[in-house]
Amino acid sequence: MTNPKHQLPITNAPCPMPNVPYPILMPTQVTVNPGVVTINDGSSFLVTASDASIDDNQAQGFFVRDTRLISYYEISLNRYRLVLLASSNLNHHTAIYQFTNPQISTVKGNLPPGSLLLTIRRDIVGGMHEDIDITNYHSEPVEFQLMLAIRSDFADIFEVKAKNIIMRGNTETVWQDGVLTTKYRNSSFIRGIVTEPVCSSSQASYANGRLMFNVVITPGKTWHSCINFTALANGDVLKPQQTCAMSHATAAGKVSDEFLTKATKLRSSNADIKGFYQQAIVDMGALRIEVDDNGHQFWMPAAGIPWFMAVFGRDSVITSLQTMAVYHEFARGTLVRLAQLQATQLDDWHDAQPGKMLHELRRDELTKLNQLPYNPYYGTVDTTILWIVTLAEAYSWNADLSMLDECQSPIKNLSKKAHKLIGRM
Fold first, then answer.
1. Do 332 and 71 contact (CB within 8 A), yes or no?
2. What pLDDT score does 276 carry?
3. 243 contact partners, CB below 8 Å, separation of at least 6
4. Residue 215 reports pLDDT greater than 80
5. Which range of residues forms the domain containing residue 366?
């Protein structure tokens, strides 16, 4: 038994050493990318400032297959910048931005501030779809030019992150039949972006690097235009889905919904715990990227939004292990994709050895031209053993013999490697 004399008394008395400064513990405020809006669908993603703009000197833009297809975006009325009211993600692949106008000089006199409500809604659906709506709350008709300055630098994702962009290749832009096409070529590496205004209340024109619309709106009415951004990547055409502010479902969105339906449910009397869990499930659904296996579709977790929406080794297998109790099928896509990319020969440039599992796979320009080793890169010491651990754990949850059959060849390759290593000892 403890001697009561050796116990400290529990009282409400002040601190016995008032001259010692004790820190006051306050709640920590956590912010993630303040002033930035990020959305994605699979490995296509968009990073903008909160006012919908894209600055080519910042790590912002519309990225497809590790290449920045839109590097600059600015919207204005008669070249006046708009006043931001609010902006937010609606879900992982949709964002909305709302603005009003400052005082604007027009051909019909000054337009008072706060006369217009302008809404931009963007959806990443392979390509990108944009809805622009302008409502006139002024008592008189308004007339102005809506201007969209859009540029493309086709920068490599690694150089965008490092803010050290080196110009290469050749870029050309063509405006024809109301469609703006910008293409980039560097040897065998080809990327492009097709910008097409559709469903517009007035016809678009293009000059001096800007899309322009002559807008006339009577009181209480709304002007509308859609803009489709179609991505081009070495012969592949990634078209956006025509949404026009209507609800829709993307391929990644459908799988995310399936994930939410089939994932382990959590019930708790603590609303905060339940909310945290549900948000974590939603976030995990947004991280999934497609894996094709002999015509069958699987999904695996990417390493993170926005800069790591690519096939990774260690990150994906650890995530699969940690979410096994939530959704054990999450691991299957990871196991299959890493098995597909298992190294078969010695290659010092890629740090590859027979049987080794990859660290990272990229599709950017520098990698495609073999100036970076990420196609794929095997410089990791833990992915291979983690792949084996994940395979065993996944089978203990799903008892799926077909999954073991698919992974049989990679296991044999690892066994051969192990025998060679033992033989050298």
1. no
2. 92
3. 123, 125, 129, 131, 226
4. yes
5. 287-424
pLDDT tens digits, residue range 354-389? 999 999 999 999 999 999 999 999 999 899 999 999
**Interior/surface letters 258-277, b for 16+ CB within 10 angstroms, e for the rest:** ebeeebeeeeeeeeeeeeeb
CA angle 122, 124, 127 (to 5 degrees): 110
CB within 8 Å of 190: residues ≥ 6 apart = 183, 184, 232, 233, 234, 235
pLDDT tens per residue across span 99-112: 999 999 998 889 99
- Work out how many domains the chain is built from and give that number: 2
Q: At CA 64, angle to CA 60 and CA 66, rounded to 5?
A: 75
Q: Same domain, yes or no, for 211 and 347?
A: no
How many angstroms from the chain centroid is the CA of residue 275? Answer: 23
**At residue 124, what is the residue type?**
I
Any domain includes 21:
no
Same domain, 292 and 234: no
The amino acid sitting at 264 is: T
pTM of the predicted model as reported, rounded to 2 decimal places: 0.85
- Asked, for residue 282, whether it belongs to a domain, the answer is no
Rounded Cα distance, 112 and 225, in Å = 23
